[in-house]
Amino acid sequence: MAYISESILYICFSLVIGYFILQLVPAAHKPTIVFPQWLVLLCVIFIPVMSYVPLHLIVLEYADAFQLGYIPMIRSILLDLPVGEAWLWTLLGSIGLAIMVGIPAFAKDRHMPKVGLLLTLLLSVWFGFASHASSLSSFRGLVVHTGHFTSVTVWLGILFIVSWFATDYSQWTKFLKWFSPLAIVCVLMSLIAGITLMTFTTEQYNNGLMLNYGQYMLIKHIAILPLLWLAFSNGYLYPRRMKEEQLSPKGYLRAESILALVVLIVTAIMGQQAPPHNVLETLQTESPSKLFSLLFHGSFSPDIQLMWQFNFNSVMLWIAALLMLYVSYIAFKQRKLWVMVIVCLLFIILAYLGYMFGIVAK
After folding, report:
1. Contact 3, 269 (CB under 8 A)
2. How far is the CA of 289 from the CAs of 204, 209, 219, 253, in angstroms?
3. What are the φ/ψ torsions at residue 334 (nearest 5 degrees)?
4. DSSP string, 69-93
5. Which residue has the higher pLDDT, 292 or 245?
6. What are phi and psi for residue 307, nearest 5 degrees?
7. Which of these, 238, 146, 239, 228, lies nearest to 184 by C-alpha position?
8. Phi/psi at 358 (nearest 5 deg)?
9. Helical (H) or strand (E) element with 360
10. ∠241-243-245 over CA atoms, to 5°?
């Protein structure tokens, strides 16, 4: 339940922030977009609703232990814990956004996109305030998590809306002139923030694979590779073909958005896992990852130290993964978009197995 709610929350955040940014862009510099107002309002409403699910699960888990009913327990969480305070501010901000989007007098005001974008960015800050990173290092964690989350949602939010709700791509070249640099900045910010985040949440990358957080982080890192390849192709390689052959970028954008959705969902799932800043300590209260237990063939104990080394199986799997990337390039040139998506997903699976099969105890 928490994984689903967190994934929906990330998607809603992305769509809302992408919507407000595109509202600020002049019509001559973006595709014609038909994004229903009711869908924007629904995404805004879902932000506090999906954010509440982890609090609800905390109540269900600890109410009996503290011998409190639901109402007293949730009141204590909302008033005494940072995650509860963050949700209250999220609720208030979302109500303001819902009024702006849902009431025509506000929705048609020319200043609405600016105020809406500012409110959404403030919601991102409160989301970072309730994160694992913020609990480990209050200011540093808040800044890093907020920077990572905002850069990803800005990039992918615009991508989702343009790929699925654009009806005319006649202004595609003008759109790329501002979106491509913005996407590059967002990618660099997310990479820098992600690496910084790892310095105090995942000090031992390989040992972290014993936990769910480490497993999903590895999958995310691998999934980013074909996503960046598609983003580069759509931003720089495809526009040349588009001019020569009068093609529409819609299919390529949707293929990129599917891989982006995979990365976003994996990131959302990571947000519900205990970060492996102290693997041995975490394993005292949490079982090792089922994926790790399935793929690790050595003798397991919570205090083992893991390393990666070359072996026949891992090398062959990585060769197969690289072949999938080559096939995706061929599919890209031949406009076989579903083939491209499938082989990119196969690349993720094969590269993941290639890394896991090389994990051994020191």
Report:
1. yes
2. 16, 8, 13, 34
3. -95, 5
4. -HHHHHHHHHHHSHHHHHHHHHHHH
5. 292
6. -145, 165
7. 228
8. -95, 0
9. strand 359-361
10. 60
> Residue 167 in 3-state DSSP?
strand
Residue matched to tokens 């509440």? 52
Classify residue 172 as exposed, middle or buried by CB count within 10 Å of its CB (0-12, 13-18, 19+).
buried
Residue carrying structure tokens 């005494």: 80
Pairing mode of beta strands 359-361, 32-33: unpaired
* pTM for the model: 0.90
Give the C-alpha separation, 234 to 4, whole Å: 29
Q: Which amino acid is at 334?
A: Q
Cα radius of gyration rounded to whole Å, the chain: 22
Look at the block and give the residue holding tokens 């209250």. Answer: 88
Burial of 120 (0-12, 13-18, 19+ CB in 10 A): buried
Task: Output phi, psi for 248, to 5 deg.
Answer: -95, 140
Q: Tell me 103's DSSP state.
A: S
CB 8 within 8 A of CB 152: no
Give the pLDDT band of residue 296 (cuts 50, 70, 90).
confident
For residue 158, pLDDT over 90 is answered with yes
SS3 content of the chain, % helix, strand, coil (to 5): 75, 5, 20
Please report, as a single letter, which amino acid is at residue 244. E
Can you tell me the distance from the alpha carbon of 24 to that of 12, in angstroms, rounded to the nearest whole number?
19
pLDDT, tens digit, 9 for 90 and up, residues 48-90: 999 998 888 888 877 777 777 888 888 888 888 888 888 899 9
pLDDT digits (tens, 9 = 90+) for 190-209: 888 888 877 776 777 888 88
Tens digits of residue pLDDT in 113-122: 899 999 999 9
**Higher local confidence (pLDDT), 231 or 225:** 225
User: Which of the residue ranges 97-111, 283-297, 306-320 has the most confident prediction, judged by mean pLDDT?
Assistant: 306-320
Report pLDDT for 128. 79
CA 224 to chain centre: 10
Torsion angles phi and psi, residue 34, rounded to 5? -115, 95
